[in-house]
Write a structure and sequence with these properties.
The protein is built from twelve helices and 14 strands. It is an alpha/beta fold. The protein has one domain: NAD(P)-binding Rossmann-like Domain (Rossmann fold, 3-Layer(aba) Sandwich), CATH 3.40.50.720. It is globular. Bound molecules: nicotinamide-adenine-dinucleotide (NAD) and sulfoquinovose-uridine-C1,5'-diphosphate. Nicotinamide-adenine-dinucleotide (NAD) binds next to helix 2, helix 6, strand 5 and strand 9.
């Protein structure tokens, strides 16, 4: 299959590109390297020493004989080049990772809020309209988020895979209707993903586009078999207060003896998936696209759920580091239940990596190995959801 991977230089996109190339697909990465530029803006680097994209691709070619193409293109700003690329390459499928993906970054300033909406919504819309304009039958697989559903809206009721059946009162009695699950985003970033959903629904209905939306939980872990082949292929590992996600942050903090930065009570329950399963899920989604004329196919891309304080206690027990309960910089429920339906991927053959198997390996092989690259002044989260919210104190590393 010929596949365009949009955002293929990023944390999820890079290992996915290698995995798809490894199993024989013809992969071209499209990325404007904006994520690397944001690192410069934030004055922080991936904990792991990621190499320039050209070197990454040359190493992959030298090791495997497989060629991955690369096009430096801004999906939001360079529509004509995007349409021309799709017409020229005639891909069978597009995997769309190319968005600004950090909730704290999206809340840090007016400029960051505007950038996140402009970048994400325009990028997604440009991809859809370019596929329609090309006249080609290209399947689109998009990386969405569990955060579109919000947390706790339906209590302990399981969150369905995308759609909810509701009873609509009419003069003639109630009728059943299937609707997109109500959107309840918790950040400007998450809001852009709920807007993406409407764009997908429209183009699937109006133009018969075949779209799959993967509502992914928080990705943890770093390496896949392909990124581990050579240090020059290593994947990105974000640990800073804006881009670092909670479990990888705890693992890195444990490796350097930094108190674990739990926000609030830590009663927030979230969904998780290992990066090795992300790449498998994308493969499965590519192999099982919807038919033309079908509604958007939604998968909940999640393998387990945990409360933040339970994760902190688990990591503390494994490593001996202490847990710090900090003022929560976000507007979010202190405690929530989370029960997620996730039968589809398992039925299609996903064999998940659970925390119980991967945690120690991650601390040993990644967080401890590269801990000297950490800048401890970047660890505590500084982006607050509302003006005037309390900012956490600096935590001193013992
Ligand atoms: P990332 O920031 O590491 O990668 C995104 C890539 O897209 C970057 O390389 C960036 O340069 C590129 N990009 C952004 N805007 C672009 C544009 N306008 N044109 C071209 N390229 C552009 O993020 P990630 O963690 O790999 O996430 C990938 C996708 O998966 C995102 O859409 C994110 O919302 C989703 N997701 C991520 C997680 C997670 O925990 N990392 C969880 C759920 C969903
Ligand atoms: N948290 C802490 N301490 C920290 C960091 C985070 O307690 O040091 C808490 C947050 O307050 C939040 C939870 O942990 O309650 C998760 O935060 P996160 O930064 O790990 O995840 P989030 O902001 O939700 O975003 C990440 C990715 C995003 C993806 C989303 C999936 O950055 O791209 O969409 O996970 S989900 O959360 O399922 O919507």
């Amino acid at each position: 299959m010929k596949v365009l991977v949009l955002g293929g230089d990023g944390f999820c996109g890079w290992p996915t590109s290698l995995h798809l190339s490894d199993i024989g697909h013809d992969v071209t990465i499209v990325d404007n390297l904006s994520r690397r530029k944001i690192d410069l803006e934030l004055e922080v680097e991936s904990l792991t020493p990621i190499r320039p994209v050209g070197e990454r691709l040359a190493v992959w070619r030298a090791l495997t004989g497989k060629e991955i193409g690369f096009v430096n293109l801004d999906l939001a700003e360079e529509y004509d080049r995007l349409e021309a690329l799709i017409r020229a390459l005639e891909p069978d499928a597009i995997v769309h990772f190319g968005e600004q993906r950090a909730a704290p970054y999206s809340m840090r300033s007016v400029a960051a809020k505007r950038y996140t909406v402009d970048n994400n919504v325009r990028a997604t819309h440009n991809v859809l309209v370019a596929v329609v304009a090309s006249g080609l039958d290209v399947a689109v697989v998009h990386l969405g988020t569990m955060g579109v559903y919000g947390y706790g809206w339906s209590g302990s009721a399981p969150i369905p895979e995308g759609y909810l059946t509701v009873k609509v009162p009419t003069p003639d009695g109630e009728i059943d209707r299937e609707i997109l699950h109500p959107a309840n985003p918790g950040s400007v970033y998450h809001m852009t993903k709920t807007l993406d959903q409407l764009l997908f629904a429209f183009y699937a209905k109006n133009d018969g586009l075949r779209v799959t939306d993967l509502h992914q939980g928080i990705v943890w872990g770093t390496q896949t078999p392909q990124t581990a082949l050579d240090e020059r292929l290593i994947n990105r590992f974000d640990y800073d207060g804006d881009y670092g996600t909670v479990l990888n942050r705890f693992l890195m903090q444990a490796a350097i003896g930094h108190p674990l930065t739990v926000h609030g009570t830590g009663g927030q329950t979230r969904a998780f998936i290992h990066i090795r399963d992300t790449v498998r899920c994308v493969q499965i989604a590519l192999e099982n696209p919807p038919a033309r004329g079908d509604k958007v196919k939604v998968f909940n891309q999640v393998t387990e759920t945990h409360r933040v304080r339970d994760l902190a206690e688990l990591v503390a027990k494994l490593t001996g580091v202490e847990v710090a309960y900090l003022p929560n910089p976000r507007v979010e429920a202190d405690e929530n239940e989370l029960n997620v339906e996730r039968a589809q991927f398992v039925a299609l053959g996903l064999d998940p990596t659970f925390l119980s198997e991967g945690l120690l390996e991650e601390v040993r092989d990644v967080a401890s190995r590269y801990k000297d690259r950490a800048d401890t002044s970047k660890i505590v989260a500084r982006s607050v959801w509302r003006k005037g919210m309390e900012v956490a104190p600096d935590l001193v590393v013992r």
